[in-house]
């Protein structure tokens, strides 16, 4: 058994923590662990550093998520301070939990990492494998190592399946392996409603989201020489179209869908004078994880990563444009 100390014989206080702006894999993995650990009779809390997209509010168990805010700060701090274990899920760097990270410097809780991103920071226990397609695969392995596959029910299976689907682009990305499909098959055997899951995950546009997409497409720039496309959304766009969490998701994929483009970049200014968030996507061998780490204080995966800059939007784009010529050869021979 992987962790005999949490086998359910003695109740433990456990905090589950996904990264900020949690996606389908972070939420699905965290909720699956919530249900599983509660089956072992542990006292479990799931704390999100930020709000999450409305598109995932249908997931089983979301009513249990405690979102960190000024209002909940004291409660969150108390729960972390009193915990026996903290699980860090789908991230491996404390920068991904924003203001929550200060709460852990003095915490005596054992810190457990379950994540599939490269170059992890050290934790007390590390369940890490950057070769897998999604953290939900590692949660499945974790439950298996605990000799508890029989405890996976329809709710747990649904959460894990959503993690698999969203982090593999509906099983389309190169990271998909036979294990990915094997686990998907095991989850289907638990009676999940695949049609319902697909209906929830299929792109649904509200009017403002479409208008934001229209703005981004209008600003789209293509640099044929470097097989690169980039676009942006600024604070004025956000204010004009009543932005909600998740409304810019998917914008970056449009650039990568253009013929002969292997590198797509999206610059996002949520508020004026705030850091610029940058998303990177690539095809083939161009490693955006290393690119983001070297130049944008970020990281992620080989073909999908993110970063941040303490510059204005225009300065961030100019900075990027000055860097990209250095990667001419890498981009030309990416695929």
What's a concise summary of this model?
With 335 residues, this protein is an alpha/beta fold. The chain has 2 domains: 7-201, inorganic pyrophosphatase (n-terminal core) (Alpha-Beta Complex); 207-332, Diaminopimelate Epimerase, Chain A, domain 1, CATH 3.10.310.
State Rg: 20 Å
Helix share bin: 25-40%
> Which structural class is indicated by helix and strand composition?
alpha/beta
Number of helical regions: 12
CATH architecture of the largest domain: Alpha-Beta Complex
CATH superfamily of the largest domain: inorganic pyrophosphatase (n-terminal core)
As residue ranges, the low-confidence spans are none
Please state roughly what percent of the residues sit in beta strands, choosing from under 5%, 5-15%, 15-25%, 25-35%, 35-45% or over 45%: 15-25%
According to DSSP, the number of beta strands is 12
Total domain modules: 2
Tell me the overall shape.
globular
Largest sheet strand order: 3-2-1-4-5-6
What is the straight-line distance between the termini?
A: 43 Å
According to CATH, what is the class of the largest domain? Alpha Beta
Let me know the largest β-sheet. Answer: 6 strands, parallel
């Amino acid at each position: 058994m992987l962790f005999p100390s949490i086998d359910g014989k003695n109740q433990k206080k456990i905090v589950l923590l996904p990264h900020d702006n949690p996606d389908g894999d972070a939420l699905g993995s965290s909720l699956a662990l919530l249900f599983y650990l509660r089956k072992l009779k542990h006292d479990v809390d799931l704390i999100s550093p930020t709000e999450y997209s409305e598109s995932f509010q249908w997931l089983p168990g979301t009513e249990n998520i405690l979102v960190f805010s000024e209002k909940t700060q004291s409660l969150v701090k108390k729960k972390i301070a009193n915990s026996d274990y903290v699980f860090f899920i789908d991230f491996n760097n404390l920068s991904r939990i924003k203001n929550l990270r200060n709460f852990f410097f003095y915490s005596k809780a054992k810190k457990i990492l379950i994540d599939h991103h490269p170059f992890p920071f050290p934790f007390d226990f590390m369940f890490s494998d950057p070769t897998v397609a999604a953290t939900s695969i590692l949660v499945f392995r974790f439950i298996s190592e605990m000799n508890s596959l029989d405890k996976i029910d329809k709710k747990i299976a649904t959460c894990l399946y959503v993690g698999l689907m969203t982090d593999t682009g509906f099983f389309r990305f190169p990271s998909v392996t036979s294990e990915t499909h094997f686990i998907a098959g095991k989850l289907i055997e638990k009676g999940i409603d695949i049609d319902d899951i697909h209906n929830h995950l299929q792109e649904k546009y509200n009017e403002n989201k479409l208008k934001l997409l229209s703005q981004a497409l209008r600003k789209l720039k293509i640099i044929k020489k470097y097989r690169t496309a980039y676009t942006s959304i600024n604070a004025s766009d956000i204010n004009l179209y009543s932005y909600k969490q998740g409304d810019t998701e998917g914008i970056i994929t449009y650039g990568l869908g253009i013929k002969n483009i292997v590198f797509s970049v999206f610059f996002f200014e949520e508020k004026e004078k705030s850091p610029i968030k940058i998303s990177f996507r690539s095809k083939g061998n161009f490693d955006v994880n290393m690119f983001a780490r070297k130049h944008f204080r970020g990281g992620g995966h080989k073909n999908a990563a993110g970063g941040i800059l303490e510059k204005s939007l225009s300065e961030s784009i100019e900075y990027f444009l000055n860097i990209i010529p250095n990667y001419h050869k890498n981009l030309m021979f990416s695929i």
